[in-house]
Design brief:
Blueprint: H1 3-29, H2 31-58, H3 63-90, H4 92-96, H5 98-121, H6 124-146
GO molecular function: zinc ion transmembrane transporter activity
Transmembrane segments: 69-87, 93-115, 127-145
Pfam families: Zip (PF02535)
Length: 147
């Protein structure tokens, strides 16, 4: 496997860990928020994992190897959720930082990594629509936080 495949696996494991942190902390905050967060993560993970699968295959993995490696990185989400749920026993102060940390990470990736690339490659109207979609996502996170 090429180096890009290993880098993708490491990044995917870290990404899945933060997804798990968000899901676990959301369920600690309430079942409604937890359900919405889990559904949101599921919806964004489907295309993300398809892209990661393609990267692994292009890096030299067979389809079967790529599926196994994707399953291993998915365990990062389980570990992240477990850390969130175990942090409840440490005290409320430990769980209060998890949701803002994960939300800040998502906003950071969207604004620093994704948005500049979208704005550079698209027509002006398309760029505006993509920016509005990003802002709508931030607004949804703010609305969920108020629940």
């Amino acid at each position: 496997m090429q180096v890009s495949g290993y880098l993708n696996l490491a990044a995917d494991l870290a990404h899945n860990f933060t997804d798990g942190l968000a899901i676990g902390a959301s369920f600690l905050a309430g079942p409604g928020l937890g359900t919405v967060t889990a559904l949101t993560v599921l919806l964004h993970e489907v295309p993300h994992e398809v892209g990661d699968f393609a990267i692994l295959v292009q890096s030299g993995c067979t389809k079967r190897q790529a599926m196994r490696l994707q399953l291993v990185t998915a365990l990062g989400a389980v570990a992240g959720a477990a850390c969130s749920l175990l942090a409840e026993g440490v005290g409320e102060a430990a769980t209060l930082w998890i949701l803002p940390f994960t939300a800040g990470g998502f906003i950071y990736v969207g604004t620093v990594a994704v948005l500049p690339q979208l704005l550079r490659e698209a027509a002006p109207l398309q760029s505006l629509l993509q920016l509005l979609a990003l802002l709508a996502g931030v607004a949804m996170m703010a609305a969920i936080a108020r629940c």
